[in-house]
Write a structure and sequence with these properties.
about 230 residues; mainly alpha; Serine Threonine Protein Phosphatase 5, Tetratricopeptide repeat; 2 domains; 11 helices; about 65% helix; disordered C terminus; signal
Length: about 230
Amino acid sequence: MTKRYTYLIGMLFSALLIFSAPTYAEITGQLRFTLKAAEMGDAEAQFYLGMAYDEGDGVEVDHAKAVEWYQKAADQGFARAQYNLAISYDEGEGVELDDQMAIFWYTKAAEQNHRNAQNNLGVMYEDGEGTEVDYEKAIYWYTKSAENGNSQAQYNLAMMYRNGLGMEVNKIEAYAWFAIAAENGKANADTRRKEVWKELSKEERREARALAKQYIDLYSDYEDDEDEDLW
């Protein structure tokens, strides 16, 4: 299955640093403010400073320093830092690749309802990365993420239902999850939805349509959580 590797884009310092069309000097000045807050132990500032090093915003790109700051914020329980730290271990960027550490930090963030971490954790369990293959846990985390509006998790969960991984094949559930994933913009989801549709009986189609409508009403993507400044 596919992970959703997500890092902050756009206004890197939104919610902490607000400025329009800044010059390099202005960015550097703002970064000094963030650095001071981070050094004083502010977890959110530590997270944003890590992002600055990851993206090269106001500083030279330095993934190792990014990891250092993510670690500080993650240790304080900051979910977005825990997620980015997991990504760093998962990708081996700024730190030695370590699937078990990736699972550890994905879990920390997932337990705080970070939907992208929930999806990526599901992938780790489905594919057996850093752990034994465990379809039951994969389904659990995909479901959590899917119900939080993550289109990739909705697609991954639909594939589990369609292929009968860790469960009986359920084409009605597969159709419904493909439908909501397509509604939320997931590439290929509508193609998969149409494929499943052809395999359903007339009665199953009625049931699948009703379930898809229910899921679309319940689990459409939303823009009111911190995760939405990530892509």
